[in-house]
Amino acid sequence: MNRHYASPKGYSAYPRGPKNFSISPNRLVIILSSFQPRSQPALRRRRQLFQRLLLLGGVSLLLVIFIFPSWRAAIIPTLSLGLVHPSGDLQLQTVRYYDLSEVQGTEKGWERGERVLMLTPLRDASSHLPMFFSHLRNLTYPHNLIDLAFLVSDSRDDTLGMLSRMLQEVQNDPDPKMNFGEISVIEKDFGQKVQQDVESRHGFEAQASRRKLMAQARNWLLSATLRPTHSWVYWRDADVETAPFTIIEDLMRHNKDVTVPNVWRPLPDWLGGEQPYDLNSWQESETALALAETLDEDAVIVEGYAEYATWRPHLAYLRDPFGDPDMEMELDGIGGVSILAKARVFRAGVHFPAFSFEKHAETEGFGKMAKRMKFSVIGLPHYTIWHLYEPSVDDLRHMEEMELERQAREQEERERELQEQKENSEPKAHNAAKGSDKGSEEGPAAHPAKDSAKGSSNV
Amino acid sequence: MAVARSMRRASPISLVLAALLAFGFIVFMLSPSTPSVSASASAVSSQQRQEDAAEHPLSPPTKPFLKSPAVRSNGVQAAPPVVHYNLNNQTSSSNAIANRERILILTPLARFYQGYWDNLVKLSYPHELVSLGFIAPKTKDGNAAVAALEKAIHTTQSGPIDNRFASISILRQDFEPPLQSQDEKVRHKMSAQKERRESMSRARNSLVFTTMGPSTSWVLWLDGDIVETPASLIQDLTKHNQPVIVPNCYQRYYDSHSKKWDIRPYDYNSWIDSEQAQNLAAEMGPDEILLEGYAEMPTYRTLMAYLPDFKALDPHRMVALDGVGGTALMVKADVHRDGAMFPAFPFFHLVETEGFAKMAKRLGYSVFGLPDYFVYHYNE
What we know:
Chain A is α/β, with parallel strands linked by helices. Chain A is 41% helix and 15% strand. In chain B, 32% of the residues lie in helices and 20% in strands.
């Protein structure tokens, strides 16, 4: 096309010596100035418009690419025909750095933003979950600093489904103060053949193997969910009925490596109104140490059974309802209903032995091992939380009998009243009679034998 | 002349194309080195990596997480999700790759050796299934080691996707190491051993119990001074499907007599117990420990270091052990989950890795060694 225009200007279409190869700037200027546009203005304007549109499109495309990094990955390979590989594109953070000296745990963790891992093992616990979640919501420790972890094992009811729904609800709460931190739900069945109802749970023979399986479950939960960011670990059973909302702070304030409160449980009045529940928190005694010496390497001492008379001072029995809740007591074995421990205790390797460790297993073995590694282990005798009262089969039968008795007596009462009405034709003191009747029924010392039997079998 | 005319009248399309090309070149020049691996293979691995990633930074350290966390419709950052982990379906089997079992390689780091890292990167187990964990003391040496480590990590994690590890955690210890000197002579003195190994136990426990995630199937303990292993180390050790298995740790050295390179035993902590050793233990106080490799304390244990038969090496040969060393040690995650740890106190007169073997056995697990399968320790 160019040649076609060039020839009418007088140049030969054929090379004529070196002249053809050297284009002097002067000539170039001449060519440019002498050649006037031929296209019609309309065509030119259209072309300019086209040019501008394309330029605009290109610039906006570049802008878009810069503004949305995620588009970059999609667009660049297409443009560069696969020459440029999306190497920084995974958008994944793979490296994490932690300084463990910053997560030692201090007495005012909530002010320093210390993270707490709250651990709850669950088995057939759907009936306890609503109560447990109401406790969770009420906790005063900043929720975003609490990471929750649950282990659901060998459950035949809908513990898992219910738990998931309730957790989802908590995390979707529009109030950001209600949302917790990391939430892990771990399913793992240990093939537990041991029945979980109250009767068999506390039978002496079942105890050692049951405790070892419990220990295993606890260790699985802890090892899968403890993170380098945790300063504290709080173990809390789902079947706690009453506990102060400030319990994490209350236990933390003592700034000890392992801290447990006293655990009691309410009872029906005919059983004495209340009772120590957790007998696993104790101080070591000479008798128990001597007993341990005589036992086989794999034996496990379980507290609270006549078979092993240890004469240990128990945290539970030292409770004074009007005592100073801040009072501390050194312990060697602890119970697992509610344990606050510094994460560094677990990091050092202290765990819930699923074997006989110094003749103990699970939480008692945990206390023993923590002591062995020179950590401080304390209990608070006058700071009490209340475990749920689940009536045993005996209790249920007894309650049934009492109910029948009560109905019979009411019947009798009514008949007598009717009789009196007939005789006196003056109806009176209906309510009063009923009230006094109830009073006699609830005599606290009515079942002393039963009471003491219960006291020794709750572990 | 002809050229000049065409420049003037260039069509806008070609200009735009040129601009795009220029832009493409700039991107090409600025982007880090292009991966050499085939695009399709790494596309598969990046896909898996994306799927495996956690949504939120609050997640197990064995998972990478998305750089931009989820946001609620009202613009507020969403609360961490409820994450389910079903550990019933998780395996640790002889066919680890086929079952996509995740490995956590744990290293207590005293010094950084490039040889160690190069060997690690060379391991042929799919890297998207491998997470790393390091713990280093907060000392001058520790700082230097971590700085060197971070440099190496940066290179690998921004390099070819298939070479990148799934996730890496670096921990700094919260306690002082008892001994500043890492000199081999001082380090191996018997009096210093107990203290050193107890501190080592704490470091190991801190590392394993904070970095092990719910999806970890195997834990490989690999010391920072192991500079040479077969590339198939993980496959070879998992293949035996044993709860605890340990290869033989040797060292290459230059024999000045025969004037050639040779190998010699390095780790003596893998042994089969002896009656003499048990008698020694029976007479000990509760806080005393048995140590291997010291003339003052003849234990007459059978040491795996002396078991290889160099005339007929069989890398698959297994022997049952009672104590293990930790220079290279493959453990099923379940063993640690059940509570087996490295006792930082005399546990049946044993500490650290030897105590770990004892505890694993108390929990009902068996412990094995591969006398004819070697890994090599750095020669100082």
